[in-house]
Amino acid sequence: MELRQHPFILELLSLHLPPTDYVVAGSGPLLAHGLRRDVSDLDIVARADAWKIALSLAEVRTPPSGHGLMVVLFGGDIEIFDRWLPGARDADELIDSAELIEGIPFCSLSDVREWKMRSNRSKDQRDIELIEEHGNSSQI
Fold first, then answer.
1. How many CA atoms lie within 13 A of 138 on its CB side?
2. Are strands 22-25 and 42-46 parallel, antiparallel or unpaired?
3. CATH code at 26?
């Protein structure tokens, strides 16, 4: 399946967020690089106009991490945050360093690997392996 045909990507694009004001974080970059065919949701870090759009679409809540604020859209398919995980670079740095894939801003695989290693959840172990395998065949 092409990236832009994935149901979550279609939902994301329907929001018309300015690509200079958000980045796809979480496991989304693995989807973009073809390392995973499916993800449970898309985690978006937003600022400025993208965050204002998110706030206009649903009620703000506290994320499971307890860090910052989030808006949940499309029954949980899209989660938009005003900042990423504790210990991660701030929203501006993440967004400004985004890698555009098919015109959509994604966090780097090295950032994803770092977060997943730090959280050390069993569900992240396979993603870490996929990123490392990918890194052995290309640059992360």
1. 8
2. antiparallel
3. 3.30.460
CA-based torsion, 9, 12, 17, 23: positive or negative: negative
CA angle 20, 92, 103 (to 5 degrees): 25
In a domain, 132, yes or no: no
- Global pTM reads 0.91
Tokens 């015109």, located at residue: 103
Range of the domain at 7: 3-109
Q: pLDDT digits over 50-59, tens only? A: 999 999 999 9
pLDDT tens, residue by residue, 9-65: 999 999 999 999 999 999 999 999 999 988 999 999 999 999 999 999 999 999 998
